[in-house]
Amino acid sequence: MPILKLDRIDHRILNEIQADGRITNHALAERIGLSPSPCLRRVRALEDAGVIKGYVGLVDPEAVGLPVTAFVRVRLGMQDDKHLEMFEATVAEFPEVMECYLMTGECDYQLRVVFPSLSVFESFLRHKLTPIVGVSQVTSSFALRPVVYRTALPQSHLNQQKGEKTS
Fold it and tell me: I want to staple 46 with a disulfide (CB 3.0 to 4.6 A). Which of 9, 13, 51, 120 is the partner?
């Protein structure tokens, strides 16, 4: 995928869309100071280049009966391609897994998972996660409450690269 060179207007578009994914093209154009047609062309170019990957609605986990968030660190017995690929393909099928990262350090993977209760989490560990071939160690921590949760990527690094002050 070719890398799109983003300018200040593209970054303003991204900030606005990250703040409100349902913003109309007309309102977006007005906020960034473009007419609707060039604004729409820029948004489509950002989508086509894969900069904008999609649009989602953020749902409150507690409101839908998923109050338990756990962070699970997994160590594999062997880190060869076969075991890594098998683990990744398996956990990608689990709807409870919200995020999974290949890590450096003391664990091979870190997962963020959600559940309706601790007993369902226990069942997940015993019947889904630990039976995966190659899993040798699992360590879990539970979130008490979110302190910072963002979905919008920061754009402040752009001003710093250009030597501008950020507030």
Answer: 51
**Which residue intervals of 20-55 are DSSP H helices?**
25-32, 36-48
- By residue count, the chain amounts to 167
d(CA 95, CA 52): 23
> According to CATH, where is 3.30.70.920 located in the chain?
62-142
Beta bridge partners of 112: 71, 99
CA dist., res. 120 & res. 114, Å (int): 10
What CATH number was assigned to the domain covering residues 8-57?
1.10.10.10
Which candidate, 48, 49, 38, 47, places its Cα nearest to that of 17?
A: 47
Confidence at residue 166, expressed as pLDDT on a 0 to 100 scale? 44
Degrees (nearest 5) of the Cα angle 161, 33, 45? 70
pLDDT in tens, 58-95: 999 999 999 999 999 999 999 999 999 999 999 999 99
Helix (H, G, I), strand (E, B) or coil at 56: coil
Q: Which two tokens stand for residue 38?
A: 């060039």
Q: Please give the class, per CATH, of domain 62-142.
A: alpha beta
Separation CA 164–CA 143 (nearest Å): 37
**CATH 1.10.10.10 region(s) of the chain?**
8-57
